[in-house]
């Protein structure tokens, strides 16, 4: 258990725990921040979509409202093909008798939208009538009139539609449905002009009803727009100048009979009538009617003259309306559709028109577009990058410290072992020589030779340690000069011949260069590199059957190549990348071969100082090792 609490396993476990905590915390924050950003984006998208819906509905209502308001403000007598003029004078200045001067309905010739199919009125006893569908007698009278009336709205299609409605929906049923769907008839409509005093009294009364401030009225200033609107709402259904007008009872009642045809009769003179009556109108209300399995959209209002009720209205082409209105908002909602809304209380009021009972279906909601690299995402990415860099730095730094610590422990252990063995041999042999225990000259020579070898071993060990220390602390200065390659190889051979003989190795020098080939380099540093490689070959190929070592020199392009090759076990593929590291040796070398793991590391660093490169050539397993030194030539 204590083994896992120290060294690399414990360090790796601690790093994994810290990395998991950092990644978990940062991941939770990232997920929460991205989720919040996504919710905010969705909310903004919904707000924008709701705003577009409001704009679309405003467009639709503003497209329809003026036309519907005009229909709402039509006087009741427009729904008869002809009606008497309230006040008329002849060429002598005398007042014409009521009912002697007639006015044709504007609905006969007014320019109407194509989706306004038919204007109609119904009453008990009279059935369905339309100013745009004339009886034969009325048609003949209007066509024979000297005024040459324009009857552009009197068409066969309207006649067929009226006949279909009269067949499918009896007048009493329509009146009953209109009474249930429309508001009470409270607005007033009359057709005779008042005197100027009565006009002023009416306007003053209307403005007071609109709550106009007294000070503003006293100064004679015009009412503000909101009051104009309210005044307009109260008086919008009045003819001409919106005056209250008095109307003889017979005029009012005869206007709604026989589509106005009864006025073309000598008996229509109502000169003796003095009874006045007020006509009450309800606002136009859109209603869906079922007629013979077909649903129609109509505008209905009730007209009340004393106890008599008449239903007036307008048949609309719902399909054409839906297509026209959908095209109005095609730029906002390309797939928009309008569907009938039959409920009294709209289930989705935010999508329902005010002017007509249609509900706007904007189509499928498009996917929320990706906003790309928002500031939040950039910040999170930078936070993750910083966290990963910090973890990598901590991990690599910790691992390097642990590795360095272990290597130094191994180095201390190896140096201790490497020092203790020759020192023990030196002390033992010296004691024996000093105390005179070795008396034979041959044996004395062998002891002295052993002492020399152990001293040389100590010298190399201390030299490598000091050289590594100098490389770690500072960059050594090079002493470059022009060196003969042949002379350099001979010096290396002479210096390491005894070392090869002690390990029973045969050093073979192969110089493929010319005798006068030179190299601009640091002679001593090159000798140390080659010497370390020869010493390494002697140690690691000690048990090889082939005792030869090769030191070769040749040229490749502009570079000089030195190779040290042996016939030992070679270097395994797993050890090829680690044998050049400080205090690292091949697997099993600690038990079988002495050393502290500095030779190859020093050789590579020295080669780099010289501007060259030290590599291990790939060879077949069990066929030895070949180290290649490439120097600029």
Lay out the secondary structure.
Blueprint: H1 7-72, E1 82-84, E2 102-104, E3 116-123, E4 127-129, H2 136-143, H3 156-168, H4 171-181, E5 187-189, H5 196-209, H6 214-218, H7 225-235, E6 247-248, H8 249-255, E7 276-277, E8 279-281, E9 285-291, E10 294-305, E11 308-316, H9 318-328, E12 337-340, E13 358-361, H10 375-434, H11 441-473, E14 480-484, H12 485-502, E15 506-511, E16 518-522, H13 523-540, E17 548-556, E18 559-565, H14 589-592, H15 599-609, E19 613-617, E20 626-632
Parallel strand pairs: 15-17
Antiparallel strand pairs: 1-2, 3-4, 3-11, 5-8, 6-7, 8-10, 9-10, 10-11, 12-13, 14-16, 17-18, 18-20, 19-20
Helix pairs in contact: 1-10, 10-11, 12-13, 13-15
Q: Radius of gyration, Cα only, in angstroms?
A: 58 Å
Find the structural class using helix and strand composition: alpha+beta
Shape field: rod-shaped
- How many domains is the backbone divided into? 4
**Percent of sequence in beta strands:** 15-25%
The biggest beta sheet is recorded as: 7 strands, antiparallel
Query: Approximately how much helix is present in the residues?
Result: 40-55%
Low-pLDDT parts are: 190-245
Number of helices: 15
What would the average pLDDT be, to the nearest integer?
79
């Amino acid at each position: 258990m204590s083994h896992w609490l120290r060294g690399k396993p414990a360090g790796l476990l601690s790093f994994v725990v810290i990395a998991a905590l950092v990644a978990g915390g940062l991941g939770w924050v990232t997920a929460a921040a991205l989720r919040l950003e996504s919710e905010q984006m969705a909310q903004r998208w919904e707000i924008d979509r709701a705003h577009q819906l409001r704009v679309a509905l405003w467009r639709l209502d503003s497209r329809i409202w003026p036309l519907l308001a005009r229909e709402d403000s039509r006087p009741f007598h427009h729904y008869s093909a002809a009606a008497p003029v309230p006040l008329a004078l002849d060429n002598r200045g005398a007042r014409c008798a009521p009912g002697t001067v007639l006015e044709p309905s504007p609905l006969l010739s007014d320019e109407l939208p194509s989706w306004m199919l038919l204007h109609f009125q119904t009453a008990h006893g009279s059935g369905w009538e339309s100013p745009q569908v004339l009886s034969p007698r009325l048609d003949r009278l209007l066509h024979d009139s000297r005024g040459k009336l324009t009857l552009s709205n009197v068409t066969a299609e309207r006649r067929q539609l009226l006949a279909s409605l009269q067949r499918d929906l009896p007048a009493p049923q329509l009146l009953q449905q209109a009474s249930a769907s429309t508001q009470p008839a409270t607005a007033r409509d009359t057709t005779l002009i008042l005197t100027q005093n009565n006009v002023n009294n009416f306007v003053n009364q209307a403005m007071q009803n609109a709550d106009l401030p007294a000070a503003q009225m006293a100064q004679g200033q015009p009412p503000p727009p909101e009051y104009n609107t309210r005044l307009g709402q109260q008086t919008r259904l009045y003819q001409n100048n919106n005056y209250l007008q008095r109307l003889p009872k017979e005029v009012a009642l005869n206007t709604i009979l026989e589509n106005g045809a009864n006025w073309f009769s000598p008996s229509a003179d109502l000169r003796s009538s003095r009874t006045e009556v007020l006509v009450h109108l309800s606002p136009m209300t859109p209603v869906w009617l079922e007629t013979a399995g077909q649903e129609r959209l109509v505008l209905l209002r009730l007209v009340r003259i004393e106890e008599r009720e008449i239903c007036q209205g307008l048949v609309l082409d719902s399909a054409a309306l839906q297509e026209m209105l959908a095209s109005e908002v095609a730029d906002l909602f390309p797939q928009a559709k309008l569907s009938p809304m039959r409920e009294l209380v709209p289930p989705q009021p935010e999508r329902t028109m005010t002017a007509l009972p249609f509900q706007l279906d904007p189509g499928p909601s498009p996917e929320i577009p990706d906003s790309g690299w928002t500031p939040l995402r950039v910040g999170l990415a930078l936070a993750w990058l910083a966290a990963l860099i910090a973890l990598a730095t901590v991990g690599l730094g910790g691992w390097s410290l642990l590795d360095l610590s272990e290597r130094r422990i191994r180095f201390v252990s190896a140096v201790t072992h490497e020092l203790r063995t020759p020192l023990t041999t030196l002390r033992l042999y010296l004691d024996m020589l000093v105390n005179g225990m070795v008396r034979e000259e041959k044996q004395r020579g062998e002891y002295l030779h052993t002492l020399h070898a152990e001293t040389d071993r100590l010298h190399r060990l201390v030299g490598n340690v000091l050289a590594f220390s100098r490389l770690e602390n500072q960059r050594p200065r090079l002493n470059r000069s022009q060196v003969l390659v042949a002379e350099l190889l001979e010096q290396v051979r002479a210096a390491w011949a005894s070392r090869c003989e002690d390990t029973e190795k045969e050093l073979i020098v192969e110089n493929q260069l010319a005798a006068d080939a030179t190299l601009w380099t640091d002679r001593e540093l090159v000798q140390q590199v080659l010497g370390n490689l020869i010493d390494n070959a002697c140690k690691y190929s000690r048990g090889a059957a082939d005792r030869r070592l090769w030191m070769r020199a040749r040229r490749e392009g502009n570079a000089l190549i030195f190779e040290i090759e042996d016939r030992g076990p070679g270097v395994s593929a797993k050890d090829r990348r680690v044998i050049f590291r400080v205090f690292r040796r091949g697997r099993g070398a600690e038990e079988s071969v002495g050393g502290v793991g500095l030779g190859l590391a020093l050789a590579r660093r020295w080669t780099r100082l010289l501007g060259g490169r030290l590599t291990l050539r790939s060879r077949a397993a069990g066929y030895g090792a070949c180290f290649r030194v490439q120097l600029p030539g």
